[in-house]
Each structure stands twice: as structure tokens, then as C-alpha cells.
Amino acid sequence: MTTRVLLLTQWFDPEPTFKGLVFARELVRQGFEVEVLTGFPNYPGGKIYPGYKLKLLQREEIDGVRVTRVPLYPSHDQGAVGRVLNYVSFAAASLIYGLFGARRPDVIYAYHPPLTVGVCAALIRLFRRVPVVYDIQDMWPDTLRATGMFSNERALKLVSRVCDWVYRRVDQLVVLSPGFKHLLVGRGVAADKIAVIYNWCAEDSLSAPRGDVPQVFRSSGRFRILFAGNMGKAQALDAVLEAAELVQQQAPDLIFVFLGGGVEVKRLQELAASKILANVIFLPPVPMAEVGSYLSGADALLVHLKKDPLFTITIPSKTQAYMAVGKPILMAVDGNAADLVRDSGCGKVAESENPQAIAEAALALMRASTNERNVMAENGRRFYQQKLSLKVGAGRFGEIFRRQTFK
After folding, report:
1. Which one of 64, 277, 332, 366 has the fewest beta carbons within 10 angstroms of its own beta carbon?
2. Confidence band (pLDDT; 50, 70, 90) for 79?
3. Range of 22-26, 287-291, 306-310 with top mean pLDDT
């Protein structure tokens, strides 16, 4: 008998999303019948995408995946009101469809954030007696506090109580790191109710990258350490610029390349200029399909986040991409992410926001032999394929879905 999965997520292709069409398609390949319940695409700009028009219901089929779109208030304002309306409107429309319109699934997969998706899934479970697997990608309210999205302690306590309510009512929690699991157990969630399934990366884009890379990636004789991705407050990249300043004289051929955008880019560029850092280069963001060419052209890849308790249990998504592409990693994030690099033997670890430690790790990678770096690269690639890939992760989800169905 085919297991029917209702995949409940506020964001889905063509929006930039993680567990979207690629995940749903893999579940179909594994023999599941999948219906995606999502909204009309409007993220991140807050405007409905061309080719779509808000209406009560829209159904489509993509690569064997049935997609049902329900209306929502399109918004991605920085202000709380627009964002709350966006979240609540989708949850309300999804609840109505989940209760009265959807064919009864065997299991519901709900993707968090936002928390309102979990509330919706728990209510559908209550009335339709369908088990729910709840995938937690952001630890609320911790993330809201750490990123400054919410600062009102009363509101944060309310969010925490709602989270606890959802956790009690779903059947299985899935988290992306051992630290997430440890935190939830400390908050009273039974350990046997929580599974750790590491995230995978955009394998299709990385396996067949497109686009030409700039001259800095084609010239020989320089050791290029690349940071690719968003440059915001959480990345705390001042420490990396200080590390670049420390190594500039003793290793002039070692350069740090920053690829991407973000609210901190201009300030970081000005800081690098004020320090007269000839070994720092900033490149503008490129489409995801082209990122793989930059990763492959670098000699080592950098991950950095600020020193914060939340980030010790977070594994930045670029970690998996860096492993998959097969390059040595300089991991400057404390905790679970550093453990992945140590366990796999795919690079060097430095303390977060410690310029001296980052500089020493960068020099160690540069001074390692070509064979030593090749071993690190192959270790990362192998570790990814065996423990972190889409096939492995979706397979574990499939086991959980079947187990919940036949309880």
C-alpha cells in the first residue's frame, strides 16, 4: 500500500526554499504519494510571482508531485505586523484545506519555520487523527532573540509556550543537529521522540555548475580561501578581516575572497579599505547555479558565525555544500558544526571570532601539502555522500513516515 504524505510548508518552489521540490520529488521516487500544501509564491520580495494570481485554490502537478496552493497575505516586511499577517493567513487557509479539502493523508510532514505551520499541523492532527512529523529548522524563540527579530520578552515567552504546545501534540520531531536535540530534551521533550537528520545541500546546482569565474580564481600561485553566502550581523566577519590583517605580511599569497551580499557588505568593504588589506577581495552575489564554479575554483572554503550559544548547536547550510563540492574547510563556528569537520577530517577548526585562531588555521591549510589537502577534500566528499546527502536524509524521513503510518 502506498503511503500518502501531506507536505505542509509555507514556502515552496519557485520560491528559494530548502526542503522543497527536490525533497518531494525524492519521496515520490521512493514510492510515496506526495501532496504539497503551500502558499502562492511571494518570498522574499513580498509580491506574488509572475504567472501566479491569488485565488481560493490552485492545483498543479510537477514531476509527479501534486501541489496545492492556498491564499495568503503576501508580505515580507521588516515590520512585525506584515510578517505576522503573512504567517497567520497561510496557517488559516491551510487549516481549512487540511480539514475539509485534502484527501486524508497517512502522515503529515510539517516544516518549521514559521511556528504557525506547526500549530496548523497539530490542529489537523487533532481533528483528523493523522500523525505529524515536525521538522524544526530554526529553534524558536532562541533564533528570534539571537537575530533581533523579536526583542519583547513577553512575546518571546508566548512563542515559547506555543512551541511547547506544538511539541507535545506532534508525533515525531526532526532536528538538524545533536545540539538541537539536547536543547529540546532539556525543555522536557522525550529523547525518543526526537530524530537527528542532518540537512543536505543543493546537489543539482553543485554537480553541474554554470558560469565563468573571475580572474582571481583562474590565476595560479595564490591560495584562495572563499566565504560564500550572506554577510550579515550573525556572520561577524570583522574577525575574518582581522585574521587577514594578521597574515598579510607573512603570507601575501594567501587571500580571503568574500562572495555574496548582505547588510554588512558595505561596512566590511570600508573596514578592509581602512586596514589597507590587499589580501581581501569582495565579489557580488551570483545565482545559485553559478556558485558551484566559485566553490570549485577556491583552494579552501570558510564558515564563520558569531560566538553565540545558539550557533553552537547550529550547522550552517554552507557546511554541507562545502563538503559535497570536495574542498578543505576552515570551520570557525563552535560546537556541532566544528564536530562535523573534526569527525570527517575534512579541514581545520578555529574558534569563532578569534582572529588569531582563524589566521593560524588559514596558514595551516595553505602550508599543508597538496596531498594532505586532497585527503581533506575527499574525506568531506565521502562523509557527505555517506551521511548527509539527499538520498540518505530523504531515506531516513521515509523510514519515519512509514513507522508513523503503521504504528
Report:
1. 64
2. low
3. 22-26
Describe the crossing of helices 115-128 and 80-100 by its angle, rounded to 10 degrees.
20
At 24, which amino acid appears?
A
Separation between Cα atoms, residue 359 and residue 337, nearest integer Å: 19
Give the C-alpha separation, 351 to 307, whole Å: 9
pTM for this structure?
A: 0.86
Residues 353, 306 contacting (CB under 8 angstroms):
yes
- Quickly state the pLDDT bin for 286 (edges 50, 70, 90): confident
Is residue 372 within 8 Å of residue 1, measured between CB atoms?
Answer: no
Residues paired with residue 108 on neighbouring β-strands, in sequence order: 6, 132
Using the structure block, give the residue that is written with the C-alpha cell 573596514. 271
Mean pLDDT of 186-206: 91
How confident is the model over 237-261, as a mean pLDDT?
Answer: 95
Q: Which residue has the higher pLDDT, 148 or 249?
A: 249
Q: What pLDDT does 357 receive? A: 98
Whole-number Å distance between alpha carbons of 314 and 316: 6
pLDDT band at 399 (very low <50, low <70, confident <90, very high): very high
